[in-house]
Amino acid sequence: MEPQDLDADVLDRALGAVEREAGLRLVIEQRETKAYRRQLDAVLRLAQGADHLAAEVKRWAGHANLGALIHQIKALPLQGVLVADYINPKMADKLRREDVQFIDTVGNAYINQPPVYVFVAGKPRPMGTATVKEAPNRAFDKTGLKVVFAFLCDPALIDAPYRDIAERADVALGTVGEVLKGLKVARMAIEKGQRKGRRITEYRRMLDRWVEAYPEKLRPKLLVGNYQAEDPYWWKEIDIRKFGGYWGGETAAAIYTDYLKPAVATAYLPEGAAGKLLAKARLRKAPNGLQAEPGNVRLYKTFWPELLSFENEVALRGLVPPVLAYADLLATGDPRNREVAGMIYDEYIARHCRED
Q: Following DSSP, what letter does each residue of 245-302 receive, concatenated?
């Protein structure tokens, strides 16, 4: 089945389940429509009301990064509702506390549309049932994410020759074709024909998909280690550029917005540079289970080559690109970090969406 057919199947089964289990009828007003410059999976309406809900369909929602998923639903142009194959009890409680509405294919639901209020959680997935998976999309596997990151940082790069894209993303030449094919299947990019070039058609959806996948598929492979500093503000005295590195996560956000005190300082460093930073900053190895507390530090390896150019301001300040800072913040699941991620999106990223 095509991805859109699988999404439609999940939506139809979820609507049937919430009506069967909770007596709540939701009507599909439109499927796959564009509103406020955003592609929406569907627009729903309560049968007994006039308010509309933007549906975001997620198969295998339990495998998505929850912080990124919550932000994605809250950022929809209409009130959002997550439509999933299955929401487990822990996830249901977290979504309800964050006031993120949802329905799934077995009848679990949270709908808060006064005077209508529904909360059903704990219904198990029937034995032997599972959502049909679509074929793997190379654009969002561990290596493909590096190429998509390059496109998100420089959207014009998608129209470059394959060899240039491979060099800028630091991947094998054969990977480029597979990624472009995956983006076309996902309807995030199009090829306009011979000699007419390629372009991104759904920058925001590409960004959302990348932000969901990055913390699960690529970032864990990049972790150098977790450390601790005696002075929680040690990073202010460090010129990260002298180590060939970039500030990421909450540290980058603090510099980008001047609005956040980092609970965990994050840096991305090239191969072999971590030891020098550890010695200079007198960082010591942290115990397992690093908490979000001042003085804690997380170091990652860079995954982009110097050939991948960032905006001059970003490079000169020693910051990761806004897209990566945004993803790091959302991955924490912290509401304040989501707020700051929204500020970075509005200031540095949103313009790319307007250019679709």
A: -EEEHHHHHHHHHS----SEEEEEE-TT-HHHHHHHHT-EEPPSS--S-TTEEEEEE-
Q: Any residues with CB less than 8 A from the CB of 163 and at least 6 apart, and which? A: 173
Backbone angles phi and psi of 75, in degrees to 5: -90, 0
For 33-68, how does the pLDDT look when each residue is reduced to its tens digit (9 = 90+)? 877 667 889 999 998 777 899 999 988 777 778 888
Number of neighbours of residue 35 by Cβ within 10 angstroms: 14
**Domain at 138-214, CATH class:** mainly alpha
CA 312 remoteness from chain centre: 25
Asked if domains 3-120 and 138-214 share a fold, the reply is no
Record the pTM: 0.87
Give the separation between CA 183 and CA 155, rounded to whole angstroms.
Answer: 13
Q: Evaluate whether the domain defined by 3-120 bears CATH number 2.60.120.
A: no
How far are the Cα atoms of 25, 194, 298, 326, 335 from residue 294, in angstroms, in the given order?
Answer: 48, 54, 12, 20, 17
Specify the length of the chain in residues.
Answer: 356
Task: Sketch the domain layout of the chain as residue ranges.
Answer: 3-120, 138-214, 217-354
